[in-house]
Amino acid sequence: MSEVHNFEKEMNRGFIQLVVLLLLEKPMYGYMIVRVLEQNGVVVDENTLYPLLRRLEEKGALSSRWDAPEAKARKYYQVTDQGRALRGSLLEIWQQQGKAIEALRQEVES
Amino acid sequence: MNAHITEFLERVRPFLVAADEQDVLREIAGSIEDKEAVMPGGDTDENMIAAIATMGDPRDVAAAWSTAKPAVAANYRKVHWLVAGLLFAVTVGLAIISAITGGSTFVVPIFYVPSLTPLSLLYYLPFAFVFDYGLASILIQVNEHFGNRVGIEWVRGIVHHDRKRGRPTVGKVVGALVGVAGMLVLYLFARFSMLYVLNLQGPVHFMAVPFFVPFAICLLAQSGAVFVVTCLQYARDWPGYAFVRPLAGMIALLVAATVIKQPVQSGLAEGALRGLLVLIVLLETWNLFKGVAEAFFAWNAAPEL
């Protein structure tokens, strides 16, 4: 079981990036992203998500701003034009990979 | 901000890189508060403690959340300084011994100083520190590569033993001043040959040898440096003085020994005095290493290695 979990973690690295780029069309903060993803069946650890957000921000795929109208300071992330372009490319790859896996699976089964 | 969060952030902070420290700490705080807010019962002490507990070990949190890449991983930074401090203490100690005995010194294997002069010190010591820091980095990275968790128990033992030092008392300041006075008297005796002993030929100078004056000047310089740093430490408590005091003493010794270096003399008296000087240097080397360890443990609020 733990072996499967390790493989899942490896597979999730690219997947979570793509999901985040899809989700952040509107500004969201870290914990909100965790909750929304959970509601959609994607469990992501905070220790994975926050560094990923910062890495995407460093690469220009996300922009961020601090919003602290109340006591709680929250950093909102949103996808940039560069991020949208990246998302488009990743989606294409994702779809190609999906097709390839489906084709291979059918070939093996037949 | 909640006291529990502040306490947790202070435990994370030492393992972060300055470049994104504030950003990461603010996000961690926000994340904990959000977690607590959705717990049954809302804003209670128990919920806050539980929310913090879900974050995990502070050093793991820092390593996971920070994207800045230090040369040495955050978990190892303190040990890195300790090893660099130990290597530098030994380097300075060896340089002083070389200066006193009139020999050469070198940083293995690339930097050779045939004879130390005050000018060569200006570039030798900073260069040696950079080299020692780099060497410590390599040692730690090799250790990391092989997956060992760094633990230098005996270093911790030394530091814990000496950590109570803190700000010096008036007595220590006076003691340092008495030390200067004592060395001044020693110098006056050496300089003006006032110590006599009687033998069959009548009164003769006690230790009236060319090495005695430089020896006394060395000790005077060292005690003077220690006194100055002790006064500074008394005026303003700062953990770094634990490191500065022995370093100042050693550099004073080194400069004095280099400036007044005499040709090597033969005879028991010179040999004994040189041996005594080398012993003082070794003790100061040890003090310097302990100082580095204490200073960095104090600065980092001493989370366990």
From TrEMBL, chain A:
Q: Where is the Transcription regulator PadR N-terminal domain?
A: 22-85
Q: Which InterPro entries match?
A: Metal_resp_DNA-bind_regulator, Tscrpt_reg_PadR_N, WH-like_DNA-bd_sf, WH_DNA-bd_sf
Q: Which domain of life is it from?
A: Bacteria
Q: Name one Pfam family in it.
A: PadR
Q: What is the name of this protein?
A: PadR family transcriptional regulator
Automatic annotation (TrEMBL), chain B:
Q: Does the keyword Membrane apply?
A: yes
Keywords assigned by UniProt?
Membrane, Transmembrane, Transmembrane helix
The protein's name? Uncharacterized protein
Q: Which residues cross the membrane?
A: 79-101, 121-140, 173-192, 212-235, 242-260, 272-289
Give the source's domain of life in one word: Bacteria
- Keyword Transmembrane helix belongs to the record: yes
